[in-house]
Structure formats: structure tokens, C-alpha cells
Design a protein that fits this description.
Layout: H1 2-23, H2 27-48, H3 55-72, H4 76-96, H5 105-108, H6 111-128, H7 140-164, E1 168-170, E2 174-178, H8 179-195, H9 206-234, H10 249-274
Antiparallel strand pairs: 1-2
């Protein structure tokens, strides 16, 4: 019973931190919270991959601050270039899920680059997503809605998988995930995007929210699978113990790290080619 209370309490604290950071209305506080979570997340990732280089703690803080400043100043080409590299890295990690070897050798020998483009890139676009619709306006609902979609997808995928799951999704990487759970979670995610998320203060239509929900459902699941593969290689169940009953911060952010770059590029696409 004590463990259950700790699990509930740690979950409440985490959600309160996310809600408070996104709805405080102060970009500086929001960025500070993302940097705080990012440092913990990166520390857990470095422990899993046995990369002992503390300079990355300073790198992530400096990079997020510089890149966000450049985006505010409309120096977008730097951000777009980094977005391209981040998406390529994520696609390579997705392809690695289909390979029999644990991790492609190029990732093992280039852990620093992987840390920069996978984790730091994901964290950068978490911090930039509230400004994706308009760099001059802080729109936290965009990011928070993505968190809601991830929570819906994960919760309903678990429920459908538990009661209806018969066919494994990626048994080698995550034995408990099923195709039925994935489909159930994705459908629930899309329905949530259509019926509950559209709002007048964000220039995103119902149809576009459905596309975003579809992106979140797929990329969020892939992000979770990629993290599961890293943990399986390391032989650990959780990335950390900072959240009793939930694991580490990396365990909580694995999906959103993958989601935000894909959602960010879709919103940029809407601005330039649809609006």
C-alpha cells in the first residue's frame, strides 16, 4: 500500500510540474523546468549507455538556451538544420528496432552524437513547441495537448493490450506491447484529438489536430520502444528511481522526446503550405 501511495504522489508531483511549467505564462520558468528535467533525463541516459562525460550536462543547458534565443530572434535556419539532423537520428533509431543486433555499431561508437541529436534534440523541440505556431506568442496548450495525447495513448494501449492483446508488437524489444493495444491506443488518441483538443486560441483546425494525434500515437509508441531497447541492452527495468513506482524522468519523457520534433515539423508544414 505504501508503494501505491508513493506511486500516486510521484505521479501527481510530475504532472503538477508539467502543468505548472506550461501554464505559468512565463517562458523563462518553462525553459528552466525543461532544462531541469533535461539534465536528469540526460544523466539517466548516460548511465544506461555507460557514457561518463559530465560535459553534456553543461552542453544541454547551453544549447537549449542558445537555440531558443536564436529561434526567438527569427534565426530559424539553425533550428531547422538541427531539426533535420534530429529527425534523421530518430529514423535511424527506428530502423534499429528491426535489426537483430542490439544496436547498430555506428550508435555504439558515437554515443556523444547520439546524446546530442536524440536527447538534446528532443528536449530542444519540447522547449520550442509552444512557439511553433507563432515565435512571438507562448502557446503552452500545443505542448500540453501533446502530453494529453501521449497519456491517453499509453493508458488505452495498456488497457486494450491487457484485455484484448494476442499478437506481439515488438516482442524482442518490449514483450508486453501488443498490436491490439497499439491500435486501440492510436484510435483513442485520434478520437481525443478530434473531440477534445481543438481550441480557438491555437491556429490549428480539428483536422490538423487529428493528424497531430496520429503523429503522436505512432511516434510516441516508437519513442517508448527505442527507450525499451536501450534499457534491454543495459539490462535494467527503469532508467532511474527518482519517481517511485514510475522509474526515472527518462522513463516519463521517452515518448515526448520522439513526439515533439515530428509535431514541430508538421506545424511548420501547416504554416508554409496549408495556411
Amino acid at each position: 500500500m505504501k508503494n501505491l501511495y508513493l506511486r500516486i504522489l510521484s505521479g501527481i508531483v510530475y504532472i503538477a510540474l508539467i502543468v505548472g511549467a506550461t501554464y505559468c505564462g512565463m517562458p523563462a520558468i518553462f525553459l528552466a523546468v525543461i532544462c531541469f528535467l533535461g539534465v536528469i533525463c540526460l544523466k539517466e541516459f548516460l548511465l544506461i549507455t555507460t557514457l561518463k562525460n559530465k560535459s553534456f550536462y553543461y552542453l544541454i543547458l547551453g544549447f537549449l538556451l542558445v537555440a531558443t534565443h536564436l529561434f526567438y530572434q527569427n534565426v530559424r535556419y539553425f533550428v531547422y538544420a538541427f531539426l533535420s539532423i534530429t529527425l534523421i537520428t530518430q529514423c535511424l533509431l527506428i530502423l534499429s528496432l528491426y535489426q537483430k543486433e542490439d544496436v547498430p555499431k555506428r550508435f555504439v561508437t558515437h554515443k556523444p552524437l547520439l546524446s546530442i541529436f536524440y536527447l538534446t534534440g528532443g528536449l530542444l523541440f519540447i522547449s520550442l513547441l509552444p512557439f511553433s505556431a507563432n515565435p512571438e506568442i507562448f502557446s503552452p496548450k500545443i505542448l500540453f495537448n501533446c502530453f494529453i495525447l501521449i497519456w491517453v495513448n499509453d493508458s488505452l494501449a495498456f488497457a486494450f493490450g491487457k484485455y484484448l492483446g494476442k499478437h506481439k508488437l515488438f516482442e524482442r524489444v518490449s514483450p508486453k506491447k501488443t498490436i491490439e493495444g497499439f491500435i486501440g491506443g492510436l484510435i483513442s488518441c485520434v478520437l481525443t484529438g478530434y473531440y477534445f483538443l481543438p481550441c480557438h486560441d491555437i491556429p490549428i483546425s480539428k483536422t490538423q489536430w487529428v493528424v497531430i494525434a496520429f503523429i503522436v500515437g505512432i511516434s510516441g509508441t516508437l519513442g517508448d520502444l527505442v527507450q525499451s531497447k536501450f534499457k534491454r541492452i543495459a539490462g535494467v527495468k527503469d532508467s532511474g528511481t527518482i519517481m517511485p513506482g514510475h522509474g526515472g524522468i527518462y522513463d516519463r519523457l521517452d515518448s515526448i522526446l520522439f513526439v515533439c520534433p515530428f509535431v514541430f515539423i508538421y506545424i511548420i508544414f501547416i504554416q508554409y503550405y496549408v495556411s
